[in-house]
Amino acid sequence: MDAGYPHFPATRHPFRDSFSDARVNQTNLPGARATGEGTNVSVMAGTSGWQYRDWRGAFYPPGVPQRRWLEHYAEQFATVENNGTFYRLPARETFEAWRERVTSDFIMTVKASRYLTHVRRLRDPAEPVQRLMAAAGGLGDRLGPVLLQLPPDLRAAPALLAECLRQFPPGVRLAVEPRHESWWTDQTRDVLTGRNAALCWSDRGGAALSPLWRTADWGYLRLHEGDGDPWPRYRPATLSTWAERITAAWAADADVYVYFNNDQHCAAPYDAAAFAAAVAGRGRATARAWSGPGG
User: Fold this and answer.
1) DSSP of 19-34, one letter per residue?
2) What is the DSSP letter of 11?
3) In angstroms, rounded to a whole number, what is the distance separating the alpha carbons of residues 234 and 3?
4) What's the pLDDT at 36?
5) Looking at the domain covering 39-280, what would its CATH class be?
6) Would you place residue 137 in the very low, low, confident or very high pLDDT band (cuts 50, 70, 90)?
7) Which secondary-structure segment (H or E) carries 222?
8) Closest CA to 180 of 60, 5, 47
9) Is residue 263 within 8 Å of residue 257, measured between CB atoms?
C-alpha cells in the first residue's frame, strides 16, 4: 500500500466535480468521440499486486499453492497493477514468464521503477526508461499502461515530466500520479494531454486526491484506503460515486483501468469485485471480475 499523500477530509472532496471543466471536454481529446446517455465504458477493475499472504483462504483457496497464485488471479480478474516493479525491476525473462502464466486477454500494468521517479526524480530519464521498457516488453501483448507515481515531495516540474514522457515509445500508455499540490496547473494538464497520458485519479478514505481532469482518451483510477467497515474496505456509496464519475467521463469505447491498493485483510479483491458490479449495474461494459468466495 502506498503512503505519502495529502489527505482531504471525506466531507470536503475539493476535486470532486473538476472533470466538468470545459477545457477538458472529451471531444477535445485525441481519438475521443462524444458520448450520449446509456453508452458503455470498457472498465477493467483489479488490484495493485497479487502476492499477499493474508489473501490465502479468502481470495486464494487453501488448495492453490502460492506458486500458482498468478494463474488463479488471472482467472478471476482481467488485469493487475504490478507494484513490485517499483521496488525492483525484474529481468525480461521474468516478464516473459508472467506472460505465459496468464490468460490471453489479461493485462498487466507496470509501475515504473523508483529509480526513475524517486532517485532520479525524472532527471536524465532516457536510460532508466529504456531499461524499464526493455524488461517490461517481455509481456508482449499483455502489457498495459505504465504508471509513474511521483514522490510526494516532488514539486511541479512540467518540463522534466514532458521530457520523461517523450522517452517512452509512442504506443505505450502512460499514467501519471503526482502527489504534490503544485502540479495542479494548466501547464501540467497540457503536458499530459499533449502525450495522451492519463492523469491518475486517486482516492484515500473516500476523498479525491487530485483534480478529475480527463487528459487522455482513456482513464486510470487508483483507490488506496477505504472509508468503510471493516477497515480498509470502501463503502458501497463511495464505490458507486466513483463508478458514476468514470462512466460519465469517458467515451463508450474508452478503456478505464481501476486498481485497488487497500490490500490488507483482502479488502482489495472484494472492493474491485464490488466496483465492477457497480459499473455493470449502470449498464456499462466491464472485464471479468471475481464473484466472491465460492463464485
Assistant:
1) GG-GGG-GGGSTT---
2) T
3) 17
4) 32
5) alpha beta
6) very high
7) strand 219-223
8) 5
9) no
Cα distance between residue 205 and residue 292, in whole Å: 23
Of 23, 146, 159, whose CA–CA distance to 95 is shortest? 146
What are the C-alpha distances in Å from 211 to residues 19, 99, 120, 182?
7, 34, 26, 12
Alpha carbon distance 77, 257 (integer Å): 12
Considering Cα of 224, then 227, then 230, then 235, what sign does the dihedral take?
negative
Helix (H) or strand (E) holding 172: none
What nine digits make up the cell of 59?
A: 481470495
With cut-offs at 50, 70 and 90, classify the pLDDT of residue 251. confident
* pLDDT value for 33: 30
CB 161 within 8 A of CB 147: no
| Nearest-angstrom CA–CA distance, 160 and 178 | 13
Residue 201 forms beta bridges with which residues? 221
SS3 112: coil
Q: In which region does residue 145 sit, left (phi positive, over 0), alpha (psi from -120 to 50) or beta (all else)?
A: beta
As a whole number of angstroms, the distance between CA 125 and CA 70 comes to 31
Q: What sign has the CA pseudo-torsion 80, 220, 15, 183?
A: positive
End-to-end CA distance of the chain: give it in Å, rounded: 27
